[in-house]
Amino acid sequence: MMKKSAPALVRRIPWVLVVFVAALTIPWVGSRYDTFLATQIAISALFAMSLNLLLGTTGLVSFGHVAYFGIGSYVCGILMKTYAVPFSIALPAAAIGSALGALVFGFFCVRLTKIYFAMLTLAFSQIIWAICYKWNDVTGGDQGIPDVPYPNLDWMSSIPLLGDLRIAQQFYVLTLIVVMLSLAAIQRIIASPFGLMLTTIRENPERAASIGLNVRRYELSAFVIAGGFAGIAGALFGIFNRGVFSDFVYWPKSAEVMIMTILGGIDHFWGPVVGAATLVLLNQEITSYTQYWPFVLGTILLLLLFVFPGGIVGGLTTGLEWLRRKTGRRASA
Amino acid sequence: MFEVSFLFGQFLGGLTTAMFLFLIASGLSLVFGVMRVLNFAHGSFFMIGAYLAWQAVQWLAPALHSFWLAALAAALGVALLGGLIERLLLRHIYGREELYQLLLTYALVLILGDAAKIIWGTQQLSVSRPPMLAGGFQVLGATLPTYNLFIMLTGVAIAVAGWFVLTRSPAGRMVRAAALDREMLGALGANVGALYTGMFVASSFLAGLSGALVTPIQSIVPGMDVEVIVEAFIVVVIGGLGSFWGTFWGSVIYGQVLSFGILILPGFSLFSVFALMAVILIVRPWGLFGRPLR
Amino acid sequence: MLEVHGLSKSFGGFRAVSDVDLAVAEGEIAAVIGPNGAGKSTLFSLITGHLQPTAGRVLVNGRDVTGVAPYKICGMGLGRSFQHTNIFPKLTVLENVRAALLAHRGQGPNFWSRANQLCHGEAEALLASIGLAPQARATAGTLSYGNQKQLELGIALASDPKILLLDEPTAGMSASETHETIALIERIARERRLTLLFTEHDMAVVFSIAHRIAVMHQGRVIAHGDPAAVRADAQVRRVYLGDAPMGPRS
Fold this sequence. Notes:
By secondary structure, chain B is mainly alpha-helical. Chain B has helices spanning 4-35, 42-60, 67-88, 98-120, 146-168, 170-180, 182-187, 192-214, 224-239, 244-264, 269-283; strands at 136-139, 142-145. Chain C is globular and about 55 Å long.
């Protein structure tokens, strides 16, 4: 009886809330540098999670997801720096801008399959990169947009505990709130009938059409939603990074977020978050020993592909299942 | 608006770019046609070819000043590397989803890129032009460096040789059959494993050769790998993934669009080539000269 | 109920389906038989909109559905199962059926409810009726071949079709599996008053349950009628005894 109810209980815990509360303590229990890393992890996690809505849930291999991250950071950065628009307007504008970009580009992309889909997403992201890199008047060209201001966080000062924090730490709290709300929304979407339809498309697009789904329209919807959330991540990153630059949008960044997602595991909701945390921390550790981080990353990626194709969470799940089977057999023997 | 000699100069510049890209992209395209693997590491092979050529020139320098020998050695070195990679790594992922194939070749980009930095450092390296091709001459008022003419002729020569091998040799016929219809290949009872290795070695050789040949006119720097691979992607998409002549004409179109795009929209020539790639993928995903894949 | 008029499909120069006429009345069980490559699967794909016909028309309940996209045809009461097993392998059995039920009820765009709280009773009832209730929580891809075929039938039934097209429902099954599956199909067709059109290579099955049979050969219907008439047809006997002339018949 006990055994049977344990997994159900685990499932009922609102994990997003638990992770949120745990992460919220970092500015008080950790160093300023810990908060810096935690901010980076939170933003990367949202970016990877948005990609996984395509990769893991819908089965679409987008090699240009960084385009929507980039649109988000430029829209938010330009609005806040050039036009002094408050964050509360700039952030939704970034999300909407990215979603619109994803709608226009996605409209064409979902007409293609497999490698052609990947190539077209790559081409579109390079178009965005070329625009950001060359359109000096608006995007600052290769100089980018330096000194994007922090949002006005005076309202936090009146809250006990939060008021004592530095602005970077207060921004971390804000980032955490935005990211966790986004993750909760994505989790809800995946668990919804719409999310179930996306998984049927991943599993078998032909069959999905014959249960009455307009596959392209669903794929486009997923593309737009994923683009919107990537835009939110991009907007936060521009502020965190104290500037928006065209190399945010260069194509290897798309590969990087893809590695993050796969590293964590695309078959599990928390996979991208685990992948983001692992990659950011690992990068931190390894770059203190050697400048050859890409070499290490490439080696990790090879290991991942040949030894743990399910990623970290996939590997853990398999391990746990194996353990449970083993102990179960011992108990019954 | 512009003088004829100037326009002709742009045209020749575009043609030189085109032939370079053809040398690089033809291998990429053939590998995709036969194996259905889009090889991100192809640009890395190009870069390794450039570094190896520089290295060979250094080693040979006092005794035997031969750029040609160095270029050949570099191409052979890269071909060997390609063969090893195919046998040890790529071989195991042919049946897997394209996501894993893309990531495997991307892992190679990361590893090879850093390996080059570890071995050759991050400073710019350069190789001087072979003396016999040092000069230049005037055509319709435009100056054409002899070396560029040599590159154009090499491109055409490789195109003709490639076409000859593809149409006249048994291996070439298998390659074309595989590019058109994969099942047909199995039905022919071809030794697919050997064909794949051979194809990949040939493709690496071409990438290494073009890397070596580029050294006299372009300095060798880290990052040239990721830049060139995107250009090669554009070329093969324009011409049609897997199509040999498509890659040739795709290179020519790309070279001219880039060359004249700078005149018309100075800031946006980069934009125009990516836009061209996107438009072609939308309208004819199999490229201007390719056929829909089966 | 289902009418096909002059339906043709060419691939390049090859006529896979050539000028086929077919009519299935309500509640009827009809079979299309013929040697491999006779054009049966192509005919099905034309009817369900997976392929565009070169010529001809398809009518469902008098409505012209020629060339309508598969996802729309599904809503017009036409369900299909495929020759190669066609399920959602990494989802559970219950999720497979639930997805089809939700899609049929227009719940697909609903992105805020919890899918696992919807259609629970209906999904379980459907699984019970196809005999898969005990496997509800299993991952669909791990089921036996016969069970996967049953599940596929369940997915097709979820959209509450009036007409069901089954492409080789017993392909690759053992004798006992075939027997059970046919019994299941017959029972469900009766309970739901389905009109059934199926292809099958097992002649014993065809002649035991079909009311009417059409025989295809090289893209054409060469005979059709009730089982007795088809059995007696000289041309059919020639095709099945293997002495059919090679190449296109004039």
